[in-house]
Recover the amino acids of this structure.
């Protein structure tokens, strides 16, 4: 009886060891890739554990890269026949300028609004483009770095698409909201804007002031939330699809089903990447256009 119990204990130990060496399940794989890099030990007067360090890191790095590319194009600009890169940047700048002219009619405001719109488009496009990297490339490199420095590689989390992080997209939309409020005050004056808050959209009558003010606040909140949620929703969905396609490649084997999964992984991954290239460009353009529209509305008098 004791021998049977000892054998059972050994079998359980071998099973646990085998489970430890087994790869993650599909659910664990997805959860791991959707978990942000945070430092849970940084809790003091301010809870620093809530910051997503991966989103901040990649947002800053990609922003610096975008600024460098635009600076490079500007520094190499010539009056003669432009190169391909310069021509592409000039087309982009002209496109943004034309959109700004059609929406923001104040020429003085466009001196800031047009570069702002260009920055928004380039930055968000590059942030979205991080989704085109292989889903395991940077996370695996990060796990190796953490393991080499004495950390636990199994808890080395890293998400590389900042626009699939709601805190980033809402931060961007909040920045647009602040810009709109600044232009409301700049164009209409403090008194004019406050009067507009209470006199529009239903009319300038004291009985309508509470309803006007409530509608104005709801409009500001709705525009800001939808602005950030639209970008987040599209990029988060795209990230999930890439993870599901990656799972197909991870399940391949030397069987008919396994080979079919490998082929499906390659075909679907290529097709989705091509289609997603359109999505990331469109989302950057939509975010830029809504930024221009909201700033343009701040110039309108009611």
């Amino acid at each position: 009886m004791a021998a049977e119990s000892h054998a059972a204990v050994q079998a359980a130990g071998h099973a646990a060891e085998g489970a430890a060496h087994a790869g993650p399940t599909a659910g664990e794989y997805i959860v791991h890739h959707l978990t942000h890099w945070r430092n849970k030990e940084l809790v003091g007067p301010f809870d620093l554990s809530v910051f997503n360090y991966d989103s901040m890191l990649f947002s800053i790095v990609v922003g610096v890269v975008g600024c460098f590319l635009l600076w490079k194009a500007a520094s190499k600009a010539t009056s003669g026949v432009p190169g391909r890169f310069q021509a592409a940047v000039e087309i982009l700048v002209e496109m943004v300028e034309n959109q700004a002219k059609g929406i923001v009619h104040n020429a003085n405001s466009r001196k800031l609004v047009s570069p702002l719109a260009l920055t928004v488009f380039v930055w968000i496009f590059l942030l979205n483009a991080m989704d085109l990297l292989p889903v395991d490339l940077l996370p695996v490199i990060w796990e190796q770095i953490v393991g080499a420095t004495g950390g636990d590689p199994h808890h080395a989390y890293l998400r590389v698409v900042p626009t699939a992080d709601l805190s980033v997209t809402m931060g961007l939309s909040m920045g647009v909201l602040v810009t709109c409020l600044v232009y409301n005050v700049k164009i209409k004056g403090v008194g004019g804007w406050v009067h507009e808050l209470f006199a529009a959209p239903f009319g300038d009558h004291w009985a309508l002031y509470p309803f006007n003010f409530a509608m104005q606040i709801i409009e500001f909140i709705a525009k800001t939330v939808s602005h950030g949620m639209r970008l987040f929703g599209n990029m988060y969905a795209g990230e999930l699809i890439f993870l599901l396609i990656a799972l197909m490649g991870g399940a391949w084997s030397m069987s008919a089903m396994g080979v079919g999964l490998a082929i499906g992984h390659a075909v679907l991954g290529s097709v989705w990447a091509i289609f997603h290239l359109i999505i990331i460009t469109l989302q950057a353009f939509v975010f830029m256009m809504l930024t221009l529209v909201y700033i343009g509305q701040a110039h309108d008098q009611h």
